[in-house]
Write a structure and sequence with these properties.
The chain is an alpha+beta fold. 48% of the residues lie in helices and 21% in strands.
Length: 868
């Protein structure tokens, strides 16, 4: 019996066998050649496309890696700059910086930018590049760090591709390995936009495959040979067109599926059940490859959507919903729950997808806790915030191991969620800084306005009541002036705590408007309960505050405005509550006053003057007038009193008796008084440098609040050093109210002032109640008889007697005597007879500008006003 190879040789011995062989060869060879070429081109195209996609993913991953490393380097450089600025370098921080930066330089002359600057500089000779980062230094200028290229690029090196960088400053390209041998036609370039976070031009990141790695890609020329071999085997068995058609049909199906994939349809699948041998394997491989690529593309789109949502500052719940939606679609056999664990021990919050898989919802209490057996649960950490911890809980019914893709996607999504949580936390911190008072932790004005607008909208919709209570602390300024701002700040913090405690059970919002002003927003409180609540607040604030060893006593005045009766917008409500609060202050303080329309006239004008007064000095609306004082003996001008006036741009000239009390109440009297004293000293210094000065002495009024301020003496000492020519030429006038509270402190300060060369005059003498007992103690030079006694001459016999006693007392104590308010010659004659040293009043001159002091008009009579 012949062996098989002998049967094979029998065919070639006959001419018929040769014809069959040659015919079959011709039938097979030509189609095989054509099919092989097509297969090669097709697989080569797929290979190039897959390579290009791989390079695109490579550049994307490189962009994320570079951006993360730039951010990490920025944080490290900022931390080091902060440590250097504080004078306490951190050795561990320096070691870490040495690993990241080749060198760090301080650029003190460079202008500071709000955002950090990143540059890509070429090395000398144009070979290589050096990344440079500049951040704003805490003490001014910039800090420049030259990053090590290996720090940025150490994770980008690969044997399968080459990464290149370039920018406007370093056109490059600068590559990790030489470009020789790279397939530049398949390279992919992606921009790395720095503008959202850093200053500087965008970088271009390119990835090119290595030629020696090109042959080892998943789809190579071996697949084309496998196709050709399979087709030749089939054509050799069945030479008829019928069987050839049946055999080539799977190839056509694959080609159509490939074309669909090239158009972006990754849902296309090839039915491999009707195929045999290599075509079935090829179809299975094709289906698997398309599925993987489609899944990668879909996952990349989900990550891109999350990145876009993070950059757009969308709510954290919406970003988490994107992640859970994808997980629910890709792994329906698993259950996913985002859990938020508060650090204060409160029950965790569980977020799951709703039935439509569109948005997140809070899980009911029965689902909020972790599933019990037979569920298998794994908890993946996501992120931590100062107040909570985020985890992703994955539950499966059978406990089967997760597919590798699912594990990879979970890790990537957890990382993205961590970025979203951190971005949300930064947004919360920015909002908190914008709407929260940093000292007390209460809402600031911006936060209050937002809360009032929301509360008004809610109250109008639900037909509920709403009240706004404006609180101003009584006596706080005295505490601030006496003990300093640090004690004042701690007092404000304790006030905020008491307000929170008093309103703990009420539906209320608390805010600090600034200074010692607080606002309470009370929702849905009946009038009786509202006033009981506010009187409770008053009682709480009247209790002593303990600050270290001090017991501080203050009070409060509260004004109340209600919505909608007293205003339908936050501005009107605040204005009317403020008006009611001023009515409470003027009515005796430590009381609650409801707003009424009758408060608008006087209070609104007072509020407007207070607002305008705050900018009047900077706007140059204040000016000085001078009222001469003449010697009683010969009528010659001896000195002049400096009088402050306010020229309002709309209301005209406003008398001092209207705006001085407001300035004292608003805490502006110190700044205004300092300006008046400076102008007077500058003027008298100018006169003293002239050959024939019109005057050599000026008298300046001091407010009791100005004298009581702890910074008053240092400020006057600075002025005395600035104007040494004014020494001995300035007389400071005080009233008896300046030493009522602290006679010893007042004596000390007046002694210091006299040591600096200032004379001291006691203004409005005889009006108060305690001046007589302190005349021997206070370091006074002059007594000024109040004009009320002078103008009563001839009408009240006691007025002349009091004036005579004052002059006698001053003579005995060796004090000068000045009488103010002299308007008639009879008054002047009586005062000269008493022995008064100087006379002042409209009989001699009204207050005049400095230019008119050389020859003051005599006999001018105009209605007198209260000067200060």
């Amino acid at each position: 019996m012949p062996v098989p190879w002998q049967r094979f040789t029998v065919v070639f011995r006959s001419r018929w066998g040769w014809r069959i062989f040659l015919g079959a060869f011709g039938i097979v060879a030509l189609p095989l050649l054509a099919v092989s070429l097509i297969s090669y081109e097709l697989t080569d195209a797929l290979q190039r496309r897959a390579t290009q996609r791989l390079m695109a993913e490579t550049t994307k991953a490189a962009s994320l890696n570079l951006f993360d490393r730039l951010r990490a380097a920025e944080l490290l450089l900022r931390a080091r700059a902060q440590a250097q600025a504080s004078g306490a370098p951190n050795e561990a921080l320096e070691l870490q910086a040495a690993k990241v930066f080749e060198g760090i330089t301080s650029l003190r002359e460079a202008p500071a930018h709000e955002r950090s600057e990143v540059l890509l500089q070429p090395l000398p000779g144009g070979i290589g590049m050096r990344p440079v980062m500049r951040v704003a230094a805490p003490d001014g200028g910039m800090v420049e760090g030259r990053m090590r290229p290996e720090y940025l690029l150490e994770n980008l090196a690969s044997s399968s591709h080459t990464i290149c960088l370039q920018s406007e400053q370093a056109p490059g390209p600068h590559c990790l390995t030489p470009l020789e041998g790279d397939m530049l036609a398949l390279a992919h370039t992606r921009p790395l936009y720095l503008a959202p976070v850093f200053e500087g031009a965008s970088w271009l990141i390119s990835a090119a495959p290595q030629r020696n790695a090109y042959r080892f890609l998943p789809l190579g020329t071996g697949a084309a040979l496998a196709q050709a071999t399979g087709l030749a085997f089939l054509l050799a068995l069945i030479a008829s067109s019928f069987y050839a058609r049946r055999i080539t049909l799977p190839l056509e199906t694959l080609i159509e599926a490939t074309r669909a994939v090239r158009t972006g349809d990754f849902g296309q699948r090839v039915d491999a059940s009707a195929m045999t041998d290599e075509f079935r394997e090829l179809a299975d491989s094709f289906n698997g490859m398309v599925g993987e690529i489609g899944a990668d593309l879909a996952f990349s789109q989900v990550l891109a959507q999350m990145d876009t949502a993070i950059l757009a500052r969308q709510p954290l719940h919406d970003i988490a919903a994107l992640a859970l939606q994808h997980l629910a679609q890709s792994a329906p056999q698993l259950q996913f729950t985002l859990r938020i664990h508060p650090r204060d021990g409160a029950p965790p919050e569980a977020l799951v997808l709703d039935a439509d898989h569109r948005r997140l919802r809070r899980a009911p209490p029965s689902q909020a806790s972790s599933p019990v057996a037979p569920w298998h649960v794994e908890v993946l950490p996501v992120a931590q915030r100062p107040d909570s911890t985020f985890t992703l809980q994955v539950a499966s019914a059978d406990g089967a191991p997760w597919p590798a893709r699912t594990r990879h996607e979970l890790d990537a999504l957890c990382a993205r969620l961590a970025v979203a949580v951190q971005a949300d936390e930064r947004e919360r911190q920015l909002v908190a800084r914008a709407v929260v008072d940093s000292l007390t932790g209460l809402l600031n004005r911006l936060g209050l306005v937002d809360a009032v607008d929301q509360a008004m909208e809610r109250a109008a919709r639900r037909d509920q009541s709403l009240a706004l209570a404006f609180i101003d602390l009584d006596g706080f300024k005295d505490v601030n002036d006496a003990y300093g701002h640090s004690v004042g700040d701690r007092l404000l913090q304790q006030v905020a705590y008491r307000l929170r405690t008093s309103l703990a059970k009420a539906d209320a919002h608390l805010a600090r408007m600034g200074g010692d002003e607080f606002v309470l927003l009370l929702c849905n409180e009946p009038p009786e309960a509202l006033h009981a609540l506010l009187h409770g607040v008053l009682a709480a604030l009247q209790q002593p505050f303990r600050i270290d060893t001090l017991d501080v006593q203050i009070g409060a005045s509260i004004g109340v405005a209600a919505f909608p009766d007293h205003g339908r917008d936050h501005e009107t409500l605040l204005k009317n509550a403020d008006a009611a609060m001023y009515a409470a202050k003027t009515g005796g303080r430590n009381r609650v006053v409801d707003y009424t329309s009758t408060l608008n006239a006087s209070t609104a004008e007072r509020l407007e003057l207070r607002r305008n007064l705050a900018g009047a000095l900077a706007a140059g609306q204040f000016f000085l007038l001078f009222q001469p004082r003449v010697r009683a003996s010969d009528g010659a001008v001896a000195s002049a009193e400096v009088l402050l006036r306010w020229q309002h741009p709309l209301k005209g000239r406003i008398p001092p008796d209207r705006f001085i009390p407001i300035a004292e109440e608003a805490g502006l009297i110190g700044e205004i008084g300092r300006w008046v004293l400076r102008e007077a000293m500058q003027q008298v210094s100018h006169w003293r440098m002239q050959a024939s000065p019109p005057l050599t002495r000026l008298s300046v009024n001091l407010s009791p609040l100005q004298l009581a301020h702890r910074d008053f003496l240092p400020e006057v000492e600075a002025l005395a050093a600035e104007f040494p020519q004014a020494r001995g030429a300035i007389e400071l006038e005080i009233t008896e109210g300046a030493f009522f509270r602290d006679i010893e402190g007042c004596v000390h300060k007046l002694g210091r002032l006299r040591a600096m060369g200032f004379d001291i005059a006691l203004d409005d003498f005889g009006v108060g109640y305690s001046a007589m007992s302190y005349l021997s103690t206070l370091p006074l030079d002059t007594l000024k008889i109040d004009k009320s006694f002078v103008q009563a001459f001839g009408r009240q016999p006691t007025a002349y007697a009091i004036a005579s006693a004052i002059v006698a007392l001053a003579t005995a104590l060796d004090k000068r005597v000045v009488a103010e308010g002299v308007e008639t010659e009879a008054q002047a004659a009586m005062l000269r007879q008493l022995g008064v040293d100087e006379l002042q009043g409209y009989l001699y001159s009204e207050p005049v500008p400095v230019a008119a002091l050389t020859q003051p008009p005599e006999g001018t009579r105009e209605p007198a006003s209260v000067d200060s």
